[in-house]
Amino acid sequence: MKDRRSILFLCTGNSCRSQMAEGFLRHFAGDRFDVASAGTRPAILNPGAVDAMREVGVDIAQHRSKSVEEFAGQRFDHVITVCDRARESCPIFPGATRLDHWPFDDPAEATGTSEERLAVFRRVRDEIAARIQRFLGGTR
Questions:
Q1: I need a labelling partner for 102 at 20 to 30 A (CA). Which of 10, 14, 30, 77 fits?
Q2: Which residues are tagged catalytic?
Q3: pLDDT by residue (tens digit) across 123-134?
């Protein structure tokens, strides 16, 4: 029996996009994958990401931002960068079968009223959910 494939979502801060991607992959795929997320310069988990995910029934409130260095030497089948800055500074993961780049806007950079900022989190959340569903549709 084949072991589960391991997926790492990587962004700069590991505070929004990679956390949402990790949450959605766990939510949609259950235990089909070993999934993690990390940042090249980790920051604090963004409350806007937590709120936006909670609205669709995915709880990431207990997630924590992790440095990519925590995964040094670990083998991943698939490494997916979700922001351009992480792609530019993505470390090498020996043994990674696949490296992909899924660029998403950074909702943490949204400006305006709290409702306008939340709208950006919702849009990016929905884009990530759709991309994860396409990914799962092509994975067996």
A1: 30
A2: 11, 83, 90
A3: 999 999 999 999
